[in-house]
Specification:
Length: about 220
């Protein structure tokens, strides 16, 4: 936090769906957020919830767990590229999110069962999302791959939040441009206040707790 701003100085003030984020700020006026901060808090909490749901299902409901994980990675891809697309398929956003995770650590997706490409993981998501009845020949659902992706995703959330607080970082503009709309319930936006409470605690990390042990 710098000069009272959760994500630093000189934040973007031209946001896609700007009025919706101003409404979020107004409904949570006691938090003294900027529209950019409200948008970041919302989408980070959304990504965390998807990842946490995936973690909760690991080992018992692995197909559903992979769907939630892929949704989280797709949301990351939307944020990183400033995507405003609503009508076409999600493959490009998923690819962008996966490529970001691929660049972390050793630059590849390798488990004890083999090496996976971005296209392999996209195909696995399509299989799990669309009924789960037509896997590729000799296809497997690799729990080690899910764990690897979740661990990298948690690390990326932490690093991405830090980058969004850096004045001049182009990723700030891309997040501002991304088509993201808030959800409301009972007249209040979901996620934002809980994420604010988390991120204003000493030593908080945006990806904390998004981690699983390889079995």
């Amino acid at each position: 936090m710098e000069n009272g701003n959760l994500l630093g100085l000189n934040q973007p003030n031209q946001l896609d769906e700007h009025d919706a984020w101003v409404a979020v700020v107004s409904s949570l006026s006691h938090l003294k957020l900027t529209p950019f901060e409200a948008k970041a808090l919302y989408v980070f909490a959304l990504m965390r919830q998807l990842a946490e749901g995936s973690i909760a299902l690991q080992g018992s409901r692995d197909l559903a767990a992979f769907v939630l994980l892929a949704d989280a990675v797709e949301a990351l891809g939307r944020c990183l590229t400033g995507c405003r697309e609503e009508n076409r398929g999600s493959g490009d956003r998923l690819r962008d999110g996966l490529k970001q995770l691929e660049r972390r650590d050793d630059g590849e997706f390798r488990t004890m069962f083999g090496l996976y490409t971005v296209d392999d993981i996209k195909a696995m998501r399509n299989f799990t999302t669309h009924g789960g009845t037509t896997p590729g020949k000799n296809g497997i659902l690799d729990a080690h791959l899910s764990a690897l992706l979740l661990n990298r995703f948690g690390g990326e959330l932490t690093d991405y939040w830090v980058r969004l607080g850096q004045d001049g970082n182009a990723e700030r503009t891309l997040l501002a441009e991304a088509r993201i709309r808030p959800l409301f319930t009972g007249g209040k936006p979901v996620f934002v206040e809980d994420m604010f409470d988390m991120m204003t605690k000493p030593g908080a990390r945006a990806g904390q707790g998004i981690q699983v042990q390889l079995r």
